[in-house]
Every structure is written in structure tokens, then in C-alpha cells.
Design brief:
Layout lengths: L1 H12 L1 H4 L11 H9 L23 H15 L7 E5 L5 H15 L5 E7 L6 H11 L11 H14 L3 E7 L1 H8 L2 H7 L8 E7 L10 H7 L2 E5 L4 H15 L7 H14 L3 H17 L7 H21 L3 H15 L7 H14 L7 H13 L3 E9 L2 E9 L3 H10 L4
Parallel strand pairs: 1-4, 1-5, 2-3, 3-4
Antiparallel strand pairs: 6-7
The structure holds adenosine-5'-triphosphate and magnesium ion.
Length: 416
């Protein structure tokens, strides 16, 4: 017994050899421990690099902010104003400007007789859902479905008529509402009368021809002032990135040249600030993972590749099975060295692949249709091959990325 007792003491005394303990960190701060364990921390505040963050200052949008503010300001003096639309490509700051100006107005003029309601029509993409949200905003609790449309509308109308302030209604991504459900709600809202004050509708859309899609009657009562948001240029994107880097990253953790590179490339391809910030975030994550001291141009180049890959993966993930299989067939043929496989060849390859997935093959006609859909999503390019051995035929010109990489992505997603 005694023998075992000795062993026990020996065991307890030397326990730190058997069980690694945090002893080596005693006296050090938790922050230090986490930094050591997790690698070099470059990101100071991850939220700043997130899409939903709206900074106090929006570089490059001073003119749009001024214009929108001047359209809002008559309401401060109890004068009516006009409706507005913001038009511009994705990532040009439309949502950010709308939110920034509303927030600034609310803070600067807290007692102004204005009520702001923001509704994103990508979620509320039917008239019913928009009205449901409006009912909720006015404190009416109703079930989310099954309530009669007319009652929803009348509830809102009653609340509007009782209002003592102006209603500024921001319908973001309003084109999605009109596409899904027509423009009847926009028509009714822009003809609203009554209320002690009135309504000002701010429609936001990234479809440049949004107004052309409206019925002439709707257009004539809505008749908005237009604020155009042009794609950002390189120097504006640089300022946007610099601001995010200063706020969200540790001091000295990035080279200005790296930011310039992101700005220049994005200005050339789209002018989309969202994508520029995505690349910066990805570069910071890569640098952290690799324990790099600074984000440099080399890391940025790789960040672009990762972001592109992520975007392609998101698009592919949303595709139905047969679309994925047709894409796989095209990628395999191109990767095997066929420089311009015709649609017939793609169909043959697709039929062989379909067997592995125990699915019934679609017709050649349908597969041609799918190829056109994949082209419109930007995943591949179809070209005409004039005067080949089979006469004029359609061929796959290229994929959005090198075929080997596309195959690798598809493999990652379980298609091999
Ligand atoms: N001028 C700017 N300054 C700082 N950040 C900006 C600026 N413009 C856009 N951003 C940021 O870029 C991202 C995209 O901007 P925003 O959401 O406003 O684009 P959008 O024009 O509404 O695009 P979409 O049509 O896709 O909705 C957001 O994170 C936003 O905060
Ligand atoms: Mg937006």
C-alpha cells in the first residue's frame, strides 16, 4: 500500500509534465495568450469590415449626400418635398448614403416632424410583405400571413391619416418588389393624400432601367427626382479602403500600395466598394492566418483569387443539380485539353456524368438552354464556331476561371 502511496505523491508532484498547464503564461494577460495562440492579430474590429457597417463619412459621395439632404430639408420647415430614386450599380453606396443621411437628420434634428421607415424589398418583395412591415412599424401586431390584404392596407391608411409628421419611406431594392409583384403598391403609395403632412418615397434600385419598367400612370404620380450613383473611381476606392483600414485594422498592419492595388483593380472591373472591402477583409484574414506582419500586394493578389472563388462557389451552390452537372461536363472537357468543345460534346459528357448521379438526363434542347443560363450568370462564355467540320456550331469559349480551378472548386463541393 505504502508503495502505491509514494507513487501517488510522485505523480501529483510532477503533474505538470503529464498535463500541459497554463503555468508558462502565469502573470501574462489573457489578450497576450490569445494573440499567441491565434497567430498575429491584424484585425482590430471585424465589424468595420462587414457589409452592414455604415461609417460616419462616406468618401466620394459628398455630392449625392448633399443632393439627398437638400431634397429632405423642405420637410424640416413643414414644406412638402418630392419623391426620389437612387439609381446605380451594386456597391456604389446607395444604401449607405440613404442610411447615413437619415441617421444624420435624426441626430441633427431630433424634434423635426419626420418619421423615417426603411424597408428592404429583397426580403419584403411583395406588396403584402411591405404593408405587413408598415403595419408593424405603426405598432399593429398581426399574423405574418393569412391576413386580408385590404385590411392591411386600411390599417396602414388609418395610421398614416393619424400621423402628425411626414413619412419618409425608403424602399431599398424596390425593383425586386416591382419585378415580383408589379407596381400597384408604388402607385397607391405615391397617390396617398390625407394625413396632416404627407409621404416622400425614396426608391433605391441597381437596375438602371427601373423607371422604364413602371406603368406610365405609376410613373406620373411617382415622378421622382433621380440621383445617379456612378461606379467608384480608383482614388475614391482608395479613400474608402484607407478609412476602413484605419478603423478596422491595427496601425502599421498594411501597406498603402496594397490598398492602391485593390482600388485600381476594382475601379477597372466594376467600381464596386463592397467587393473592394471584401478583398481587404480577405487579405487581412490571409495575413493573420499566415502570421504576416503586413498586408502587402502579394497577399492582395491572393485575396482577389479567394474572393473570386468564394463568389463562384456561392453562385454554383444556388444552381439546380442539372445546371451543376452541365457545368461539370464543360469544365471536364476543357480541362482535358479540348479548347472549344461544342454543345453536342458537352451533352454527351453530361449524359455520362448524369449516370453517376442516378438522375434521368434532360434533353439536348434543355441542356442548350442551361448553357445559355450559365452564360447569363457569367459562369461561362458561348461562342459561334463558323465553318467547322460540322458547319456553324455553338462552342464553349471559356469558363469564368481556368478549367482546372473550376474542377477543383466543383470537387470541393462534392462533384468529382
Ligand atoms: N462612399 C463610401 N464610403 C465608405 N463606405 C462605402 C461607401 N460606399 C459604399 N461603401 C460601403 O460599401 C458597401 C456597399 O455599399 P452599399 O451597400 O451602399 O451599396 P449599394 O449601392 O446599396 O449596392 P446594392 O445595389 O448591391 O445594394 C457597404 O459596406 C458600404 O458601407
Ligand atoms: Mg443596397
Amino acid at each position: 500500500m505504502r508503495k502505491y502511496g509514494d507513487f501517488l505523491w510522485l505523480f501529483i508532484y510532477n503533474a505538470h509534465f503529464y498535463f500541459p498547464s497554463p503555468r508558462k503564461y502565469w502573470g501574462l494577460s489573457l489578450e497576450y495568450i490569445y494573440t499567441r495562440e491565434a497567430g498575429h492579430r491584424l484585425i482590430k474590429d471585424r465589424r468595420i469590415l462587414h457589409d452592414s457597417f455604415v461609417p460616419r463619412k462616406l468618401p466620394g459621395r459628398e455630392e449625392e449626400i448633399r443632393k439627398f439632404s437638400s431634397l429632405l430639408s423642405p420637410l424640416l420647415g413643414n414644406e412638402p418635398s418630392v419623391n426620389v430614386v437612387f439609381l446605380g450599380k451594386p456597391g456604389t453606396g446607395k444604401t449607405a448614403v440613404a442610411k447615413r443621411v437619415i441617421q444624420d437628420f435624426s441626430e441633427l434634428y431630433p424634434s423635426a416632424p419626420i418619421r423615417y421607415i426603411y424597408i428592404n424589398c429583397s426580403r419584403a418583395n411583395t406588396s403584402y410583405r411591405v404593408l405587413y412591415n408598415l403595419n408593424k412599424e405603426f405598432g399593429m401586431l398581426i399574423p405574418p400571413s393569412g391576413y386580408p390584404y385590404d385590411e392591411l392596407y386600411n390599417n396602414f391608411l388609418d395610421a398614416f391619416n393619424r400621423m402628425r409628421s411626414w413619412l419618409v419611406l425608403i424602399l431599398d431594392e424596390v425593383d425586386l418588389l416591382v419585378k415580383r409583384d408589379g407596381d400597384r403598391l408604388l402607385y397607391s403609395l405615391s397617390r396617398l393624400e390625407g394625413g396632416e403632412k404627407g409621404i416622400m418615397i425614396v426608391g433605391i434600385s441597381n437596375a438602371p432601367n427601373f423607371l422604364d419598367r413602371l406603368d406610365p400612370r405609376t410613373l406620373s404620380s411617382f415622378s421622382p427626382e433621380t440621383i445617379i450613383f456612378s461606379p467608384y473611381r480608383a482614388h475614391q476606392l482608395f479613400d474608402i479602403l484607407k478609412q476602413r483600414a484605419e478603423m478596422g485594422l491595427q496601425e502599421g498592419s498594411y501597406e498603402d500600395g496594397a490598398l492602391s492595388l485593390i482600388a485600381a483593380r476594382i475601379a477597372e472591373e466594376s467600381g464596386d466598394a463592397r467587393r473592394a472591402i471584401d478583398v481587404l477583409r480577405m487579405a487581412a484574414e490571409l495575413a493573420e492566418r499566415e502570421n504576416a506582419q503586413k498586408i502587402n500586394e502579394e497577399i492582395v493578389m491572393r485575396a482577389f483569387k479567394h474572393v473570386d472563388e468564394e463568389e463562384v462557389m456561392i453562385t454554383i451552390r444556388s444552381l439546380p443539380l442539372h445546371h451543376k452537372l452541365v457545368l461539370l461536363a464543360a469544365a471536364r472537357l476543357l480541362a482535358k485539353g479540348d479548347p472549344r468543345p461544342g454543345t453536342g460534346k458537352v451533352y454527351y459528357q453530361y449524359k455520362r456524368i448524369v449516370k453517376d448521379y442516378l438522375a434521368k438526363p434532360l434533353t439536348m434542347r434543355r441542356v442548350s438552354g442551361i448553357l445559355r443560363e450559365l452564360e447569363s450568370m457569367g459562369l461561362l462564355e458561348i461562342k459561334m464556331d463558323y465553318g467547322g467540320s460540322h458547319g456553324n456550331t455553338k462552342v464553349i469559349g471559356s469558363l469564368v476561371m481556368p478549367p482546372d480551378e473550376m474542377n477543383r472548386i466543383l470537387e470541393k463541393m462534392g462533384f468529382s
